[in-house]
TrEMBL record:
Keywords: ATP-binding, NAD, Nucleotide-binding, Nucleotidyltransferase, Pyridine nucleotide biosynthesis, Transferase
Pathway assigned in UniProt: Cofactor biosynthesis; NAD(+) biosynthesis; deamido-NAD(+) from nicotinate D-ribonucleotide: step 1/1
Keyword hit for Transcription: no
Pfam families: CTP_transf_like
Molecular function GO terms recorded: ATP binding; nicotinate-nucleotide adenylyltransferase activity
Residues forming coiled coils: none
Residue ranges occupied by any Cytidyltransferase-like domain in the UniProt entry: 5-181
Entry similarity comment: Belongs to the NadD family.
Lineage: Bacteria, Pseudomonadati, Pseudomonadota, Gammaproteobacteria, Alteromonadales
The protein, known as: Probable nicotinate-nucleotide adenylyltransferase
Record-linked SUPFAM superfamilies: Nucleotidylyl transferase
Annotated catalysed reactions: nicotinate beta-D-ribonucleotide + ATP + H(+) = deamido-NAD(+) + diphosphate
Keyword Ligase: no
Record-level GO BP terms: NAD+ biosynthetic process
Length: 208
């Protein structure tokens, strides 16, 4: 089985996360795991609690095929570092191939990630690219890409770990910050998230 991992603060989770990930899931014929971060080390603490963010991920997962919410990082008493999480997930699923999903903007800062040299030890990576969007990679990231990129999908799928595939995905111009701001300003926002997530946000009175 191929397990595609999409991590994030998901505060809240929205179609900007879900649509590109869904496209990659269909491309790989994978099981998609939506994994909320526990203590994101590179940003402020989120507005919703860990339990609320997990619940929103669970609700979002029901809107997609072959998708589940993953509570692994929320159960760890440590900051969310991708290299460590992927190593632990590989121990959990030793027979399965792991694919970590990453946006091109985040991939451009790869050299600043914790233990970034070990990010490819246990998983392949799909970098989700927005059509007509130009993201500039520095020399370090460009070298990593040159060494690891595989352009043929069938060859990429056969790799046990360490490969990178650039996947064009549909860009949806949404951010969690914009959603939180719209809620605070009593503007329309519900169409940016699955209906079940919108209902939960209103029920819990989040981001007000």
């Amino acid at each position: 089985m191929i397990r595609a991992i999409l991590g994030g603060t998901f505060d809240p989770i929205h179609w900007g996360h879900l649509r590109p990930a869904q496209q990659v899931q269909q491309l790989l014929q994978a099981q998609l795991h939506l994994m909320p971060s526990a203590q994101p080390p590179h940003r402020d603490y989120p507005g919703a609690t860990a339990t609320q963010r997990l619940t929103m991920a669970q609700l979002a997962a029901t809107a997609l095929d072959h998708c589940v919410a993953e509570d692994w990082e929320l159960n760890q008493a440590r900051p969310s570092y991708t290299a460590q999480t992927l190593a632990e997930l590989k121990q959990r699923w030793p027979q399965d191939a792991l694919v970590f999903l990453c946006g091109a903007d985040a991939f451009a800062s790869l050299h600043r990630w914790h233990q970034w040299q070990h990010l490819f030890d246990h998983a392949n990576w799909v970098v989700m690219q927005r059509p007509h969007s130009q993201v500039t990679f520095n020399a370090t990231v460009t070298k990593v890409l040159a060494e690891r990129q595989i352009t043929q999908l069938d060859q990429f799928i056969q790799q046990p770990q360490g490969a990178i595939y650039l996947a064009p995905t549909t860009a949806i111009d949404i951010s969690a910050t914009a959603i939180r701001t719209a809620i605070q300003q009593q503007q329309a926002w519900q169409h940016w998230v699955p209906a079940s997530v919108a209902d939960y946000i209103e029920q819990q009175q989040l981001y007000r």
